[in-house]
Amino acid sequence: MRVSSKEIDETGDGLVERAKADRSKRSWFGRIVLFIQQVFSELKKVVTPTRKELINYTLVVLGFVVVMMALVWVLDQAFGWVTVFIFGTPG
Q1: Is 49 in a helix, a strand, or coil?
Q2: Do 54 and 35 belong to one domain?
Q3: Which of 26, 28, 60, 64 is most deeply packed, by most CB within 10 A?
Q4: Alpha carbon separation from 51 to 38, 45, 57, 58 (Å, rounded)
Q5: Which residues span the domain enclosing 28?
Q6: Could you read off the pLDDT of 65-84 as tens digits, one per residue?
Q7: Is there a single domain that holds both residue 7 and residue 38?
């Protein structure tokens, strides 16, 4: 099922369209207030993960960091070996 942008505009709260229309009419203070309203509107859409999801996400991030650290270490060792092979030992 495809939804057109017109249908989204009609069913949504239309903050983006109102912001564009009001941008030329509002003062700088009015634009700040509108921005804060939009921030609160977006924050209401945030879903807090469950404890199980949070632990899972944390383990995935830590695993990724460990893999990237290992990759950087291997590359560092390889480049160090190549440098010593090409230029010899310092001293």
Answers
A1: coil
A2: no
A3: 26
A4: 28, 19, 10, 10
A5: 1-46
A6: 999 999 999 999 999 999 99
A7: yes
